[in-house]
Amino acid sequence: MTDAKSPHLLSEREGHVLTLTLNRPAQRNALSPELVCRLSDAWKAAEHDPDVRVIVLAASGPAFSAGADLRLLIPLLAGDRLPQDQWDDRVLNDPDMAAQAFMRRPICSKPVIAAVNGIATGGGLELVLATTLRVAAATAKFGLSEVQRGLIPGGGGVARLPRQIFPVLAMELLLTGDFIGAGRAAAIGLVNYVVPGDQLTSAVTRLAERIASNGPLAIRLIIEAVSKAEGRSLAEAFDIEARSFDRAVESEDGREGAVAFLEKRAPRFIGR
Prior knowledge:
The chain is an alpha/beta fold. 44% of the residues lie in helices and 15% in strands. The strands form 2 sheets. A 6-stranded mixed sheet has the order 1-2-3-4-6-9, with helices on both faces. Strands 5-7-8 form a 3-stranded mixed sheet. Strand 1 (9-14) and strand 2 form a beta hairpin. The longest helix has 17 residues, at 234-250. It is globular and about 65 Å long. The model has no long low-confidence stretch (mean pLDDT 92).
């Protein structure tokens, strides 16, 4: 168990992979005002750090996240608790704080991989929905239980879930608040892989390093193009793809990739 005075979010970079770890294990990593603020700050810092190419979102302890902290965050937002520290003040005074923490505004241009080690419910699942790729331990469970408390998901669950899995399945999860296991989550396309719990960290590390070895500009262009093309006609999507392709071909990374292939060596990408 971590020290109560330790930050609610830990950050560690190895090479081009940044790992952010939700760090309130005694509270099942419930989203406190401090954790919301630290997530918002971390996404912005990673976005502007050229050395970060891939981000891993992990969690301390046996749970990924139980969602919003019902003792700290929800009473604060409902006006039932007065602000007591800088984190409370920031959440109340910055209307974009929560949107930034859940990557709703803006959307991160770098790939984020969720390493889901246990229960991910409410805001915890909404964090997972904001990521690019997801790897789950076999014991992981997923759910949006807000409706059981008379609430609705407010961190992107209503908007994102029906776009990521079949709408009827999304409505089932939203309206019942029930949990599903890792196996069903993979079967419906909610997660990419399910692995034994003791292999979660190594599996995520391999995936992150594999992606980080590719062209960082190309990765950003793919994420940007997919985001912009969502909901548009096929013709518009082709136009977006073509413009992104031109930028990649004309970039230093694009030229380096071609030269490295001809010279039969690993490319040295610089992200431009």
